[in-house]
Batch of 2 targets.
Target 1
Amino acid sequence: MTLRVTNTAKTYPDGTKALLPTELSVAKGEIVSLLGPSGCGKTTLLRIIAGLETPDAGSEIWFGNDNVTSLPVERRKVGMVFQSYALFPNMSVRANVGYGLKMQKLPKDEIESRVTEVLELCQLQEFSGRAIDALSGGQRQRVALARAIAPRPRMLLLDEPLSALDAALREALRDELAMLLREFHITAIFVTHDQDEAMAIADRVAVMSHGHVVQSGTPEELYRNPNSPFVAGFVGNAMRLEGKVAGSTLHLDGGELALPRDGTGHNVFVRAEDVQIDTEGPLNGKVESVTFFGTHYRVGISGIMTDVLTSTYAGQNAPKVGERVEVSIKPEALMLLPEGAEI
Amino acid sequence: MFKSKTKLLQLIVTLSACAFLLIPTIMSVMAGLTANYFKGISSGLTLKWVFQVWELYADSIFLSLWLAIACLIVTLIVGLPAAYGLARHPGWLSRLLEEFISLPLAVPGLAIALALLQLYGSMKGFRASWAFILVGHVLYTLPFMVRSILAVLAAIDLKTLEEGAASLGASPWQRFRDIVVPNAMPGILAGALTVVTLSIGEFNITWMLHTPYLKTLPVGLADSYASMRLEVASAYTLVFFILIVPLLMAMQWASARAQRKTK
Ligand SMILES: Nc1ncnc2c1ncn2[C@@H]1O[C@H](COP(=O)(O)OP(=O)(O)OP(=O)(O)O)[C@@H](O)[C@H]1O
Ligand SMILES: [Mg+2]
């Protein structure tokens, strides 16, 4: 089922404009991530799609050819995975997963067989009789997912499904979740403020800021062609090179850089992995800090611009603090974004 | 040395407090079982007085039990939705309402009874029926029911649980039945036992509201002390204990369970 959200906004009773008029469409079977910093309105948008929040007048939500704007949540046939999972403590794992099917008034034996099928898919067979408070965080997360998909919803909505887990488990479950979502062949929207999570799971990412969707595209598109400094910074931590642009040259404190095209009226951004320590490089600076990350070093270099410029260094013998180094940046790695496009 | 001395002191204080509470109880129970209290135990033990109490006051015992059950039903029907509403809509208005419901706890029973008499005293049929006493009991016990359920509901994320059920297709009534009530159960149980115990033991309001034909257990007790042999009144106390002590113990157990749930 395709989802179309048009002109949808939300003003809370206290006057907070949590969501400004927003357009969003999600194709059948597509997995879309809403990515953005805390408080930007991701949960609000997701809850409006679910029917848990009433949008402002003029908003429209379409599930395929049905206008569901005024339909309450219980009649929208969406599956929802909550941040806190919201599993029913008064029911076993099995009863939790079967609850949606029971609400559809399916015959008992059909409920049984479908619950068993979903439990198997989510590798929960051995826990089926357990109480909810006898499960680990990761297991609860899987039960929440199983409960949401068991009634075969038209769409799956997930609000930060991994954020209640600790970092190590989160990474492992991230790939598992991506795999499961693909197996379900279901249209899914999931909210996160973690760019790695968004990139790993989603076909398409909608980046949000201050109640707006600022850019939406495949992870690669967002990474390579951000349309604003905000997206460049939020997706892949791009740094602004503070210098003077003259034609297709950028003048920095530590030297000059060739730009890929005329950069007049633009700011220049670069990512740490594109900043290379290279004896032939045109820029010159001093090593301020070296941090070891296992697969690479993070080297902070001063003297090239006012702020410290960060470079990732993958080699064996990293430069020492205090050394002077040459730095090069390939013109195609530089991102030119119009000035004043701050969001 | 010092340590064991304080231990000893503690033991003495505890034991004397127990004795202070227990000895009158035992005396009273014994009085109800001796043939002649003024001659002492030597006059022999008997169940005569207990049977006499049963003959004289069986009606009071049943009236109290029915009242307690009716009171429980009414407080459940009113209290459960009220607690649910208060839990789902936290805010200053809810706090105010909660305080308002709890007002009968602070007002002396006498004042409540007088207010009820002033308001309904002229409605003869109602004034003389057991429903009149029931109203007093409900007013007095309702806050215990509401607060007990509210404490359990406040400890769980009811809103999100209900949203979860709604997203699975449950209507408001189904959510109430499948999610709210089962999760509130420890509070409902603790509240129910409190209501029954309080209703059976209530004296202040009931004494003001009762008629000669409608005496509850505690009112009958006062009556028996005023007008019967001491042995009969003491046997009455024994009967009262037998009814109320198991209820008290069940109440302790249920509220401990409810408290565990709220942690
Ligand atoms: N019930 C409410 N009443 C008033 N304001 C609210 C309410 N819920 C959310 N807001 C405000 O709306 C804005 C957006 O909130 P929302 O929960 O959608 O953010 P979010 O992007 O999900 O953030 P996070 O990543 O922290 O979950 C915030 O400024 C928040 O304070
Ligand atoms: Mg959120």
Target 2
Amino acid sequence: MKARKIVLTSGKGGVGKTTATVNIGAALAKRGHRVILVDTDIGLRNLDLVLGLEKRIVFDLVEVIEGRCQVRQALIKDKRFESLAILPAAQTRNKDAITEDQMAGLIDELATMADYVLIDCPAGIEGGFRNAIAGADEAIVVTTPEVSAIRDADRVIGKLAEKNIPMRLIVNRIRPEMVRTGDMLSIDDVCEILSIELLGIIPDDEEIIDTTNRGEPLVLGEGYRLRSIYEKIVRRLEGDLIPFTNLDAPGFFGRLIGALKAG
Amino acid sequence: MFPLREPYDVAQPPVSAAPVKLGRAIVVTSGKGGVGKTTTTANLGTALAKRGVSVALVDADVGLRNLDILLGLESRIRYHLLDVLEEKVELDDALVRDKHTPNLYLLAAAQSREKEEVDTESMRDLIEELRERFEYVLIDCPAGIEMGFKNAVVGAQEAIVVCTPEVSAVRDVDRVVGLLGNAFAPKLIINRVRPHLVHKGKMLSVEDVNSILRLPLLGVIADEPDVIVSTNKGEPLALRSDSQAAAAYHAIAARVAGEDVPAPMVEYKETFMDKLGSLLGGRR
Amino acid sequence: MTLNEVLTRLNRIFGRENSGATAKERLRLVLMSDHLSLAPDMIEQMKQDLVAVVSRYMEVDRDKIDVRFEHQDRVFAMLANVPIISVNRTPSPPMSRPRRRRRRKSTVQQDLQGTQSSSGTQPAAGTA
């Protein structure tokens, strides 16, 4: 079976691409798939840090492309999982160290070794973005329900559409209590503006900060509210039709007031 | 080719023969996206202008412009940065006066162009021209360290780096500061601090961040939902008088202007909800 | 009604617009502007189509046509300035045949007659 090559992108920085890449990848691996995560943010690598593997980097993506090592030497296996590995970015190079064709070739090679190749794209729409999407067959666009993020996501969607890359949307950091008071755009608003298929709705939750600080994917811990949401995202990726479930807003009063959708 | 191993080398502009005091050009950068560069540029610009000085804000994020929408000026943009650089219009025609604050002007980025279309030397000349007319020129830098970053930095003499207390952000700022080298005397703003998380040990503290970065600290700003509301409306937070973050921006503006005021800090105050939350049993 | 809907209505009644609604409207307009700036070919094609349609009714100065998009605070509009050289002569509408006006029995007169006979005065002479 041919691997799925999925790029996670957003336009705007800081909306949660890397966190989503790590947590979706880990959840896929937990379900038994062979997963490789690729950090294409050359010069500003962070995938390794968010997964807690930063101390084990020996070779990076640029060295693989330049032929200075084999792919397998550069891949870092996460020992907490059966089959999850990352290919780190180079830190002391810049994004024109590789071409789009070289990236596409590398992703194809990784696709022979895995079921899912998830490509973590840098912020922006410059060379790093173009390289990251060069190897992908599908895209997940990540946005938050904020004006700048949506505007940037719209631009990125335009660019992906030019390349005929099918895409789905994750809306991250939604705050149900602010949506209720009308101080934040709702999921319906966001979907209406961006008009692409929804893959996941992730509420703003402080537990994510702690897990990224410690380099621990949600799926490895117990009692994380966001864990089940990522598991549903993964099931939808696999092709199951999982409805977006009701979410109890975090906090004492939220439970009294009622539910808003998430999942 | 953009040199990465050496500090970024910026030649100092030639000393002007004209008896005009050039304004200060400050680039607001971070490396990591989403930490609050554009918000800081808009609010710091507003706060400075409110002190009576003339301020020009330059959006260098070509293709992904957002400074206009944060200021509520998105419907007033007729010409943009590339129109000026390509000499299609005069600088005066492209500068948009702010809705809310006199003395504050915006030079918007182009939305339908690419960052690679900006000529670096022309950008440097443009910033110089702006310095001749404004006391402060704040340049909003895009995320990353590619061409957009390079063009935002050229022409600036000073840098403000914005960081959030998260591992990736700190790492990226460290990288950017390394690239900037000594020429920019970078100063730090720590943004989106959540004191109750710091108190629980679930977020890096200001001391943690600064012990790694070791930069002069301009100030610390707490995470506030009001930032989202102000972006929704296109009214910078610094226009309000009832917000901690607004007060922090004004204090930072004073410090940037050279006033000896203490750097705004964020204190942890245990709220009723915190006490209730721990009483009801903390979740993991 | 959900709580959200209640709050939205209350806010509208008291004249405060939610920033979320403001954000949505602003985004809608700004994205239109962004999309248009990315589609110069489409605008060019639309201009040509516009000229073709208008030219069916009047002769226009094709070189001086100006199509502009105005993004005001709450409104996004297309403004087209089309200099007209001449308006085609169209055949006059067909003449209508003259018709004799018929006088109907006046209800006013009937009323007056009714009133006057009850009060005893004579009706004026010469009524039809």
